[in-house]
# Entry
Amino acid sequence: MQQEPIIRITERPKPPRPEELNLRFSERAVKELEALLTHYPDKKSAMLPALWIAQREYGGQLTSDAIAEVAYRLQRSYAEVEGVATFYTMYNKTPVGKYMLEVCTNLTCMICGAYRILEHLEQRLGIRLGETTPDGMFTLAEVECLNNCGDAPVMQVGDIYCRRLTPEAIDALLEQLRNSDEHTVVQLADAEVQLHLSEQERRAAENA
Ligand code: FES
# Structure
């Protein structure tokens, strides 16, 4: 009898060839990156905020094109940028929904009912952990401690924390998110970029 492979090797996205490079950073993004580069001794050191810019500019996901653009703009190899992007969980390497629902299941949250919250979300959304709803609205993820244990159970949605969660609070939140354009994956990426810039740099980039 043929055995199932223990490890499935999925196809790794191929980097675009240099002649296929299609730069997509907006003028604002280029200005932000220029400002960021003045904060560091070399271009390589700006890689994490540069990846946040790319995640925002590419709609919430670091595609192979996005990684290639960061590599081009920082004059690093594709492999080096990909190595950094794939090391950190906050960078999305696969398509995600408009909203990421990141439920903490670390010790305190687990004791305070995080898995009940996860089950409730799975039921309400009709998806399992790691999946995205068919309408592209929500992706459900499990994360480690969000450093807000005193308010467990906690979930991060874009740029906000939802604390002391209950099934009723979850239902109200889902309703609110369905009717809003706030706390999206793209807005989280933008918030991270803005954290790295001074007020003056922010204004200069906005006027680009
Ligand atoms: S264990 Fe969930 S915030 Fe710390």
